[in-house]
Specification:
elongated, disordered C terminus, 6-stranded mixed beta sheet, binds adenosine-5'-triphosphate, binds magnesium ion, alpha/beta
């Protein structure tokens, strides 16, 4: 019982402002249950009138019968209405609430996988309204059963006792069975999640999966999980078979015994024919009512798994130490400075006393071995994490002091994988600026306007995953155009050419040479062509800056830079 109440409590927490509609649902369900108890009274009345030869009385009970049914269907109507209103809320609002929560606490991925979150957002929320419905229906079934028992007691105590014993036995067996079924249900959900997760990751990285021929190994992995899922599913089905094919026998044997007893009472004139009809109707009702209650309770504990999954996500609040300041000065020149910056992840030092200062109108490039901390520098400038000590300044003001709005409109960037949505080019650009003139201007500046215009649908072309015309290079240029639309002074570019064709690398290089005339550019790259266009170089080694300055100067002074530049050249020529 406690289990069911806990599920309902959680549900109320999730639906904090929908109490009134839940109350309406309970009232309508209660009325509906009570009204279902009334027709047998009218039926028994009709039989009593027939046996009495009172034909006027029959009409009275027929009208009563119709009224009882109108009452029954109208309360059901009301109940359906409350269900629809509540479903609207749960499907849409809770999904939004969940997504917002996840988006604001992205560290949640350490605890809950993305696949599971998507499943919960799309699937679990759809069942929330059913949980409320099941809970209310189960509760009302209990009330209805008690009322029926009282009716039996009123007519015959022995019959009431037999009905009670039969019902309790049935309830006991079914409830035990429900526990097993929901245990196995939880198991199937767990492995379903795992499978969805792997499928999701496979689809996201399909290109790499195919190129590296990872499919067979991943399929093996999936198969193992599928076998575990099968075991759980079989456990569930076995219990369901027991539930629906074996337990009912007990009730049917009891039922036959009760009917023989009632018939005996009629023969010995202890009860009249109309009472026989009434009691049989009510006994049938106790069975259907117990059945529906048990089904609802079973659903409730199954859906409870869904409710708890939603709660796990909503309850997750990582310790975020980042807060944004209130400096709203929007006139930023774009001078970026790292002053003795230390940054740790856990106990591991990632950046060690990093200092450098960069200015507008220059391309500044960070180079270094993989894992040396290049992306970390870029990510810190997105204010994703706070540093351990030191200062990061923009125009001599700590980056943490700027308001969110000012900061995001002055610092923008592009990542390694072109980040576009499956929307039209125009819609992608409009995520930052919906002014068509500005969009065209930005696309002209990165040199893709004419290309876009040459497409049959121009700016309305939808960017799809495997679209041949819009290659990753084009996508990356669209992303750069979008970054330009933000009017940011500072552009952060992390390996933006590493995934695209050489011709686009050259093109992007040309674009950057133009963009530096009115931006501060901080770029991370492994590509020699991109190192070539840099004005200044920062060389990172194991989290430390080991050289910085004008490109030519660093090339002469720093062997690591020479090594990186030449090695990358060498590896490219090897591939070619
Ligand atoms: P690459 O050239 O491969 O992109 P990078 O120079 O950009 O490398 P970073 O991504 O900045 O390197 O990583 C610096 C170090 O921080 C690496 O040793 C990496 O393992 C570690 N690191 C980065 N992110 C995390 C994380 N979320 N948890 C633990 N360690 C991390
Ligand atoms: Mg990196």
């Amino acid at each position: 019982m406690k289990r069911y109440i806990n599920i309902f409590k959680t549900l109320l927490e999730i639906a904090n402002n929908k109490m009134w509609i839940i109350i309406q649902m309970a009232i309508s369900s209660g009325l509906n249950n009570i009204s279902s108890l009334l027709p047998p009274i009218a039926t028994a009345g009709i039989i009593a009138m027939i046996t009495d030869n009172n034909f006027n009385g029959i009409w009275y009970y027929v009208i009563l019968y119709v009224i009882f049914y109108i009452f029954y269907f109208e309360s059901l109507h009301w109940n359906y209405y409350t269900y629809t209103v509540l479903a609207d809320y749960y499907h849409l609002e809770v999904q939004k609430k969940l997504f917002d929560h996840v988006a604001n606490n992205d560290e949640i991925y350490d605890k809950v996988s993305k696949g599971k979150i998507i499943e919960t957002c799309s699937d679990d929320v759809r069942y929330l309204v059913d949980v409320v419905d099941c809970f209310i229906k189960s509760l009302m079934s209990v009330v209805k059963l008690l009322v029926i028992l009282l009716i039996f007691m009123y007519y015959n105590f022995l019959v009431a006792t037999i009905v009670l014993i039969l019902d309790l036995l049935y309830l006991y067996l079914m409830n035990n069975n429900s526990k097993n079924v929901s245990k196995y249900y939880e198991g199937t959900r767990k492995y379903e999640d795992k499978i969805i997760d792997i499928l999701n990751q496979m689809l996201t990285n399909l290109k790499q999966v195919k190129t590296l021929n990872l499919m067979p190994k991943l399929n093996l992995n999936l198969d193992k999980t599928r076998i575990k899922w099968k075991e759980q599913y079989k456990g569930k089905r076995d219990n369901m078979t027991f539930r629906y094919c074996l337990i009912p026998y007990i009730v049917y044997i009891g039922k036959i015994f009760l009917y023989i007893l009632l018939s005996y009472f009629v023969i010995t004139k202890k009860i009249t024919l109309d009472k026989l009809v009434l009691l049989i109707s009510y006994f049938e009702m106790t069975i259907t009512c117990t059945d529906s209650m048990l089904d609802n309770l079973l659903n409730l504990s199954n859906y409870g798994v869904r409710v708890n999954r939603i709660k796990t996500i909503l309850d997750y609040t990582p310790q975020k130490d980042l807060d944004f300041g209130d400096v709203t000065n929007d006139y930023i020149n774009g001078v970026v400075e790292f002053k003795n910056v230390y940054y740790d992840i856990g106990n591991r030092n990632i950046l060690n006393k990093v200092s450098f200062k960069i200015y507008p109108n220059e391309i500044n490039t960070i180079v270094g071995h993989s894992g040396s901390g290049k992306s970390t520098i870029i990510n810190l400038l997105y204010r994703a994490k706070r540093i351990k000590s030191g200062e990061i300044l923009i125009d001599n003001e700590s980056i943490y002091n700027y308001s969110k709005k000012v900061y995001s409109s002055n610092v923008s960037g592009v990542f390694q994988i072109p980040f576009v949505f499956e929307m039209s080019i125009r819609e992608n650009l409009a995520l930052v600026d919906s002014n068509i003139k500005n969009q065209i201007e930005a696309c002209k500046r990165v040199g893709i306007h004419d290309f876009i215009e040459s497409l049959p649908k121009g700016y309305n072309t939808v960017i799809k995953e495997d679209q041949k015309q819009i290659t990753d290079g084009v996508k990356q240029l669209i992303v750069i155009a979008r970054a330009l639309l933000s009017k940011a002074e500072i552009l952060l570019l992390d390996e933006i050419t590493s995934n695209i064709d050489p011709e686009f690398t050259v093109k992007i290089g040309e674009v950057l040479l133009d963009l530096k005339t009115d931006h501060t550019i901080l770029m991370v790259t492994h590509k020699p062509e991109m190192m070539e266009i840099a004005d200044r170089i920062i060389v990172l080694d194991k989290g430390k800056v080991i050289a910085k300055g004008l490109n030519k100067y660093v090339y002469e002074k720093c062997s690591l830079y020479r090594e990186l530049k030449n090695r990358t050249f060498a590896s490219i020529s090897r591939i070619e």
